[in-house]
């Protein structure tokens, strides 16, 4: 009886997932990306260099969480096994052409990420400890006056990022260490729980500091390995690029047709960079922006989408395509295909490197996912007791994920994430006029050679900003 019930639930969840990720979300998020790109006059291309400059400037010390720390925290959540295993799956399902569509969706998604992160800064609030919090739930309540909408978003995010995805990341870590070194999953799980607990119990600032230390190291190390493979196969690069473009439009039989490449690439790209999901906007609101203007954090998160997909996912694709492993993949797919590619190119030691990379990618995802969920817990209730209970439940899910396969939980998380994205896209579309006005103000000041500052009094159309949080005097005082 119980098994039949579980089977029925799985069938329903899988059907909803198929509808969400197979069609609805793809069309909605692509449409949003095109709309915001056009309305912002291709800002992701026009001011890409300015965005990169703000990321670098964000390393300056501030009284709070710096823009660079927020950038690293959002990257910690974005960059995970999806950047390795997800790319391999996309290529397996849709052929090399899937990479072209991953690139395209990331370039469009940069504009969407810009909008949601700017709004998160506009409508941020300060908690009892002086820490800024915000995100979709907050701008839904303050900007739209719809607390019910923010509550729905918060619940969906907590289910997906607070519990299920953290269990999935822990499961991937224990599997990798068990397969590579034979480590006992229970012992590894306990270590993960202790390490995660130490950081997340320190709150957002400790999560941000840990991300600032770990993320750059793991990203550079992974890109260095990809660069070695690229150099070893430099003569094959033109052919690989040609294959990507030809396969994207169905000109190569290996791609399985243009539609297969398109659907696989767009779906994996959206899943990887999270543009439009509203997740990264939660940590974006916590930054002390530099310069003191909401749009500056929009620029920073725009660059995050670029690094996630155009840089790191492309590195994984290069390793697979240049290694020649697709000529004889055997039974390998997902992370196994990437491991086989690296082993063929660099030898058996590279399998251990991938295990180490997975360890870092997944661990940072756990602590960053927690930070997203914490902001939404604090939206639902200001009770510290509830927050402590939530931390305990998160760690319990990490332990459960370490020792058991929780496929139904992960599938349910995909549903939650998909619905979360639909709610967020609806909200940022309704608030888009606010975002456009704020971004226009930033560009206007920048063209005058000023360091942009935000004065809410100049925007009578914006309602719901907490009194004093964005006054020029107060922000100057913080700096």
TrEMBL record:
Keywords from the named record: Cell inner membrane, Cell membrane, Membrane, Symport, Transmembrane, Transmembrane helix, Transport
InterPro entries hit by this protein: Na/Ala_symport
Domain of life according to the entry: Bacteria
Regions that span the bilayer: 20-42, 87-115, 148-168, 180-201, 213-234, 305-326, 346-368, 388-410, 416-439
Main location: membrane
Intracellular or extracellular location(s): Cell inner membrane; Cell membrane
Membrane topology type: Multi-pass membrane protein
Family: Belongs to the alanine or glycine:cation symporter (AGCS) (TC 2.A.25) family.
UniProt protein name: Alanine:cation symporter family protein
Lineage: Bacteria, Pseudomonadati, Pseudomonadota, Gammaproteobacteria, Alteromonadales
